[in-house]
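Field: COMPLEX_INPUT
Field: COMPONENT_COUNT = three
Field: RESIDUE_TOTAL = 980
Field: MODE = joint
Values follow.
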Amino acid sequence: MSAGTLEMAILDGILTGGVYALMAAGLTLIFGVLDMINIAQGIFVILGAYASYSLEHSFGIGLFEGLIITIPAMFLLGAFIEWAFIRRLGEYNRVSMSILVTYAVTIVIEGVLLLHFGSNYRSLTASYVTQSFHVFGNYLPKIYLYGFLLALASVLVLYFILYKTRLGVSVRAAMDNRFAAQLVGVEVKRVSTLTFAIGVAVTAVGGMVFGAVQPFTPNSSYDLISRLLTIVVLGGLGSVGGALVGALVMVVVEDIISVAWTPTWATLIYFAVLVIVLLLKPQGLFGQREVRAQ
Amino acid sequence: MSPDISHDTITSGSETRTEPAQILCLEKVYGGYGGGDVLKGTTFTVSDKSITCIVGPNGAGKSTVATAISGILKIREGQITLDGEPIHTLKPREILKKGIVQVPQNHSLFRKMTVEENVEFGGFLIRDRQQVKTRFEQICELFPIVKEKAKIKAGALSGGQQRLVEFARCMMLSPRIVILDEPTLGLDPQMARSVFRTILEMNKSGVTILLVEQNARAALKLSSHAVVLESGQVRLLGSGREVLENPEIGTLYLGGTSQKQ
Amino acid sequence: MKSLFKRSKQRRIGFVIVPAAALLLAACGSGSSNASSSSATSTTASAKPIQIGASLSLTGDFAANGKSFQRGYAIWAEQVNKNGGLLGHKVSMKILDDASSPTQVATNYQDLITSDHVPLIVGPFSSLLTVPAATVAARYGYAMVEGAGGAPGVFTHGLKNVFDVSYPVKDGLLPVANWIKSMPAGKRPTTAAYVTSNNIFAQPQIAPAQAIMQAAGVKTVYNQVFQSETTDFTPLADAIAATHAQVAIISTTSVSKVIAFVKDFITQHYNPEILVGTNGVNQTAFTSAIGTCNANGIIQPNGWYAGYDNTLSHQFVKAYLAKYGGTTSQITASSAEAYGVGEVLADAVNATKSFNQAKILKYLHSGVTFQTLQGPVKFNSKGENVDGVVLGFQWQSKGTKYVQILPASDKQSVAPLFPKPAFCS
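Field: COMPLEX_OUTPUT
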């Protein structure tokens, strides 16, 4: 290992982690307000990647400009899915039922993508995807920095919505105590729809960056959702800040182990960290509620 | 409705009134959760500015009455009126706007928010931030604990303190009717007394109180009116004292509870 | 976590893909159940048509190769039918999708043998899936001739029914290693980095090549095995770039991973003199992801390419272009591997004049040499092709031509681009 490699690995980890953080933030937000686990978050990311791909290939719309279309489109899709399926979930066995319903949504979207795009790997291409900045004697891939900045901006927008708007106040109240929120006059149903839609809308951004960094197929969602779930469990279900920290811990730990020791054990070490955290703090790093109580 | 209520025998609460108006009426209300009706033709009225206590054995439908009035439970048949206008068709949010607020049995504070944020949340429906601030200052005078613990996370308070903050929050909207569901549940006797004292003060400030209480003996003592509920039907109506002194009711529902507390 | 989702995903993928050959058969008016009525419309084949079963990865990580295999099998079936079928029986392929999953592939072969009662089976794609597939086949005494299960791990299970028509995977990097060894000392690279996915196809290729190169004085400066679950390849690729190794060898089964490495090499401005990927380099997914021009000079070992000088190969290429159109460069080695499987199986059936699996197995084990489009095939006792030839291919002409460069002694080979030209962007 040469000097600087470790520092670069940490920087890489932070930049990549930022994108995972955004995708996981959407997932945890949905969990917090709707009391459900959205297994479809992974396929939404892949759908977002394909949306960027289509705009780029069919209309020549650049990856970043395309977000102006894909973000509202994913928002509407999220609102529709909440209205069509999630709203119909009862209180009984809600979490388990939500997993089944969103898994079904996953299969349908995956099937449509397979029919339309086939199963070969696709990649998002743009000049900056293979370019880099030269900083401190090291090369930093441009797309990682752009992706990170975009993810950061999106997370800031999320925080602005959460802490500075009336909707955000309602969302936080619903996340804290759904029943109490209803008592003080929060329209929990409307808030649920909006939250789900926002949680899905962020996948437009996540999908674009994901697709620019690594190739994807309609099947790519399974690895993704399992990673996102470990992130939100590590950070604490329902905690947006926890999702951010969880994502960074995941990628940085793996990157450091990969470089400082060996990639063979990198994934395992991350999962060991996850298990140890859950043993010491079953509710995750920043969670209020225990995972097993759900 | 019932002759028991028409002549006033109030011992505490709103002492000055003799002919109170009926603010809230339940007429032949049927409804329940999924499995079948809990309320089976429940009929009673609540006098303006009264403290009306609902007593009855477990499963009688006391809490169900509370959720039906606040609109969280949709009733199947019958009607609920406020000042003669039906409200059972309204959404919980609209009922809230009409001035009926509920403090539920289980703790309902936002645990991750501070006491101040919680109380201010009571004024969620008030769009004017300035008005919320002014009202908050008024509430602080009524509930000293709110000022004292303003910056503390609600989750860190004791059960009794949380109750008081919940009361404070429900007062933010300057409600006409406050429904309290088991407010002293799980509190030690000293704290329970403090809660009852606060209820009296709230009532004195002009709020009608509808009280569902396991601790029936203590609750009836401060109630102007009482409703005895059994299997979703009203068994007896009267003043708090009348019900307390009714020998049959005493042995049936009050004996056990008084020993427990 | 991963396996949980993989597993549940597989359960739903049981749908049947009926290949073009089956449609063709249906067009002839013959149903699989009533053979006597079909004889009237069929001139050459009078016997009952038969189905040949296979499970292929039509979705998932190996989808690109799986589909190439599907084409190879389809062309083979078409050619067989054109020549009168197998022992007079028209053939059609019955192909199930295994979504690149080792558990689904086993289920699929079980279904093909026990519910569809196919008389013959052919192998799936990749060594990873061949072991579970051949294990199931062995249970029912079926021979499994396959074209993409050449990893050493396939032959260590004591399976007596597996026969790989392609070259043994462990030999994959030998042409590259021998080429480096043959260079004059002043020109020969002195440092090499190896990175491999931890699976039975990718990993075994490293050690034999590394041994040859080290003996030739090429120092190993990086040698790591990564897990297929790895989320971020950047630090690995950065670490390799930081070594400035003159030779970089990336061994993977999935094209997505070789793309991740090469993309990062480009951003790191790391231009090794020799850059080798053991799989995926020839796919359009690869060139379109990294940019055609950036592919220039990148090497991949393989057993076959469309320009391969072999009569059977020329026939195959002609049939392929007639059926699917396009250009010769779009025909992948995987299609040829599948076709080769069919050739060997057909030879065995014709030689034994039967569909009896025991007789076929005995014949395949007899040490006879088969002629295929990939060259001669001869199985040792484990089922490895001892005559298997590994070639080396390279993207040249700014990434527009994929040409054979190794072994240098082969008259088909052109001069390699060495050192590899710098990346374009």
